[in-house]
Amino acid sequence: MADNLLYFTELLSMPVLDLKHRRIGRVKDAALVPREHAARIDRFLVGGGDTWLTLRFDQIQSIALDTGIQLSDEQLLPYHDDEYMLRIGRDLLDQQIIDVTGRKVVRVTDVTMAVQHDGQRDILTVLEVDIGVRSMFRRLFQGILPGRWVRRLQSRIPPNSIRWEFANVVEPDPLRRLRLNISYEKLEDMHPADLADIVEDLAPAEREAIFDSIDSEAAADALSEVEDPKMQASILESLETEKAADIVEEMAPDEAADILSELEEETSEEILEEMDSEPKVEVQELLEFDEDTAGGLMNTEYVVLHHNATVADAMSALKGNEELLESLNTLFLIDEEEHLTAAIPLARLFLASGDSRLKDLASETLIQVTVEEKQDRVTEYFDKYNLLTLPVVDEEGKLAGVITADDIISLLRQK
Amino acid sequence: MPKVLERFRSNILIFLAVLGPGFITAMVDNDSGGIYTYSAAGAKYGYLPLWTLLPITVVLIITQEMCSRMGAVTGKGLSDLIREEFGLRITFVLMALLVLVNLTNVMTEFAGVASSLDLFHVSKYISVPLAAIGVWFLVVEGNYRGVEKVFLIASVIYVTYIISGFLVRPDWKAAAINSVRPILMLDSGYIYMLIGMVGTTIAPWMQFYLQSAVVEKGVTAKEYAASRLEVTFGCIMTNVIAFFIIVACAGAIWSVAPKDIKDAADAAVGLKPFGQYAFLLFSAGLLNASVFAASILPLSTAYSVCEGLGFEAGVNRRIREAPVFYFLYTSLIVVGAGVVLIPKFPLVQMILLSQVLNGVLLPLILIFMVILINKRDLMGEWVNPRWFNWASWATVVIMVGLTLALTGMSLRQGPG
Lengths: 415, 416
Hints:
The complex is a heterodimer of chains A (415) and B (416). Chain A is built from 19 helices and 21 strands. Chain A has 415 residues and is α+β, with helices and mostly antiparallel strands. Chain A folds into three domains: 163 residues, SH3 type barrels (Roll); 106 residues, MgtE N-terminal domain-like (MgtE N-terminal fold, Alpha Horseshoe); 112 residues, Roll (CBS-domain). The model of chain A has no long low-confidence stretch (mean pLDDT 87). Chain B has one domain: Amino acid/polyamine transporter I, CATH 1.20.1740. Chain B is globular and about 60 Å long.
């Protein structure tokens, strides 16, 4: 089995032999053409004399570690940079890629390929990218010690590799992404917090590339999870206004407002301009408040009912707000003047019959703060009354928004 | 008028947002080795060496500016860039050298801790282990932002040198004249001293630390103007401190009787006749500088190595997530502090070795830097302008020449 493997470091400087077994040059690099095949090495770049030649995979007869590459067709064309090529040595080796299963950014030290005979010729396919100490050893000693020794010595070091299909190449240039068939779909399925960790590890241009190509919903979730507000702002700033607006629309209004307030006024205005009217108004309202007040902390994602409503009414209201369900734990009641009258813990609904009045299920004391309340006081309330959700009212006692425990946790962690 | 005020306010805010990396790096440049070099210069040659500070500042600004620009534009550390552009083998060799150079540097820092606290009659068997443990916990338990604040405060403590400079009541007129009047003497000791002053100014680790710190801080190409200002300001401050160290030693030691001093603590003792405060402030400054550099060097080394070789790094990661990083970091501190405690350990030879390795490593790194910063696919519009390239290459040539000269001279006659 092991003999069917070939490492990229071994392929480099392997001799290329013509039909009469004369050496015409050595391998300088190898390339995939991802639009044709995701893993097959399609071209070999051969350095002979002054120029590099391009060798297509179907011009090869055999590939062997000891003898080199034997050609079946020796008509090689001179190499010219091909936009559709992903060159292993230039574009992959020593660069950072995303390990989708390991959920982190890693640096490529070597590439493991398989040699398979398809009846006519030997074909090389990329199996894994290698990252650990083993591949490092190989890189350092290849060409210094005899190849067979390097293989034997390295086998004592535990391998550390990522399957090629789970390795995501990072390419900042959108045109090249298209030509090389690079997509970040796999990243969209990741947990947003993991994706945020990954982008935090990348350079700005690469961050932008990822946010630019994944769908707005995944981008919004990941952006909310990025810890540093300054980084959030600079990511948003780097995107096209339209894309930025799409992402902001998908975010919770309070988080959207937080990020927009980090941006320069001109940029945030431009983004708001591009947004749909409904989320835009919510965000704009939140932007009015000072960052360190209850108004600056709150979001507008809550469910509110009339104070004479029944449990059945509440159920149907929840059906209309399914997107909120994941984090919802309290319902609010208001009177005719929209004044907040009661808060109902959601769990009490399960024990009540459909026609009972909601206000009978309300918490004994209604704890609320005004939009002007200082941040410190708000956290104190959460601690003192063991709250999950705290309603925020405006000067007239009208419900303006809610602060949830996760907002408080983020706030405390930032300190 | 309010518009101008508004602009001013927002400029100050941007400046504060990027404040840290450049200033800290420049300050750590005056570590215990640097303080010794400046003290020795002042004690032996009085005000004469002051003129070198101006060119030193310029050279320092040129190199530091390149690093912070690369950090801000690419968002990658220097070792990252070297790895990506020059491959694993070169990176590995550079990193191995960097670890060796910095290990010897860490030793000199802990030796500085030992000798400065020795002035207060604290045994080195107490001071050094305590400092080592303190440094380890500061960085491992803190987050980077908190640590950066501690570092910034440590930078402010350098003010002690300015005050002790005043307390000594030096000859300000001579100091002023000699700051702008270059004097060359064909005295081998004098030339050695001049080269030493320039040579201690730019160390390999600084380039790595500064660039990573700029990246960590999230400075963007847009804020870069503020960052450049910060770097420049830091470099100037560093040399202002150096000026006062030289002046203090010139006023206190040279004006009485020019002599060779054997370490920085020796200089502090020389200030004693000018009052307890001058002595106290000078030694406190030395302690601060040593601890400060001892905190940054191991951290920066472990960080650069892991970045370049592709291991997980960063104080925000847990030990199990970044084992290589913590192993390197801890070993540098333990070994660096440990050897200071070994009786009869050949510390002087170690410092010599460190200078030689420094001389080998620095030219390589400066050359890589200038090559990297001229790559258009990395730097885009931020590549060196042509005139700056001339300045950069001239700096590289001067630094390489001086470092090699220093190395050669150290090898022949030993330091001092």
